[in-house]
Amino acid sequence: MPRFAVIFFALLTLVVSPPALAAPDAADQSASFVAQRDLQDALSKRPRDPVIAVIALNEGTETTDFLIPYGVLKRAGIKHVQAVAVDDGDVTLMPALRVVPDITFADFDARHPEGADIVIVPAVHADNDPRILRWLQQQAAHGALIVGVCSGARVLSQAGLLKGRRFTGHWYDRSDLRDANPTARYVPDVRYLHDNGIVTTTGVSASVPLALALVEGIVGRDRALDVARSLGATDWSAQHRSAGFQLNTRRLWTVASNAVSVWRHDTLAIPVADGVDDIALALTADAWSRTWRTTVIATPVSAASADRVRLASGLTLVTTASRPSAARPLALPPNRNAMMQFVQSLHDIAQRYGAAERDIVELAMEYVPPSR
C-alpha cells in the first residue's frame, strides 16, 4: 500500500464509524466457495509446470505482497518461479528490506518469448509506471494469468485489465478502483477473486491464503497442506469480511501523532543469516513498520556475510552491514513458524505501544485475528 501515510493525513477530517465484524453468513460462505473453486478451475487450465513471474519495481515494491508469494511458491517446490524487476539492481521493498531480483523484464522476455503462465503483481510505489503497464499488457495478451496482490489491483487497473471484470481489493482502494473501472464490479467478502484471467485480492495479509491457493492449484492440495502446516496457516479459503475495515478518528489520530512524533521512533534490527525464513521475516518487518513508530532493518549475524544473505527461498537479501547502536535487536526464533511469528509481533506491538497501535497494523494489513 504505497500511499498509506498520505491517505491517513488526507483523511484526518473524516469521521467514519466502522461497523462491528459479523460472523459470516451462508451467502458469504457460498461466495467464498465459488471464488475458491473459480481460482482452482483457472489454475487447472495452466501448464502443470508453469513459468511464474513475481514482478517488482526497483524503486519501491510492497514487502509482504512480494516476498510471501515468492517464498511460498518456492517452498512448495515449484521450479520456475522468478523475481522479475523492471531494471538491473536491487529492489527497495516498502515499508522495509531490500532484495536482489532474479532477472529483469528484458532478460525474462529473451528467455520466455512466449510469456509467463502466471504473473504476480504486488503493490508498487508508482502504480502507473509505463514500463510495468506495457509489460503486463503484453503478458496478458500472451495468455498469462495475472494476479494482483493487495494494491497491485491499482496496477492492473492502470493497465486496463479490470475493465468489465469482477474484482476485489484492499479496503482503501475500493472506491478508486470502482471509479476508474465503471464497467467492472467490486465483490465484497472474498479474499481473492478470479475473473477471465485476472485475479485480485484484499489487503496485505491476503498474500498468505492467495499463495497457498496457488500452490494447491499448481501442485495439489496435499502439498498445499504441507506448506500451510510449515507456515502455521490453518485456512486459505477465500472467506473474508470486508465491512470491518474502515477509518475512524481514533485510528487517524494514532497514525498522525506517530508520524509527526519522530523523537518517539524506534529502530529494530533483525539478525539474519543464510536460510532465514522469507515469510516470517516479511510479516515481522511489515507489521512493525506499520506502527509508524518503527524502522526495521536486517543485519547479518556474521561479519562473513558482508552485506548479503541468502533467504530460504534462494532470493538474496541486502542487509545493513552493522547494527546502529540505538537499534533494538528483534530475533526470529527458528522454532517459531511464520504465522506464530506474525501473531507474536502483533502481541509485542500491543505490549510496547498499546492496543491502538496493534489495531492500526491490523487495519493496514487487512488482517482479522482468528478469535474475532
Automatic annotation (TrEMBL):
It holds the Pfam family DJ-1_PfpI. Residues 1-22 form the signal peptide. Gene3D superfamilies: 3.40.50.880. The keyword Ligase does not apply. Residues 54-216 form the DJ-1/PfpI domain. Keywords: Signal. This is DJ-1/PfpI domain-containing protein.
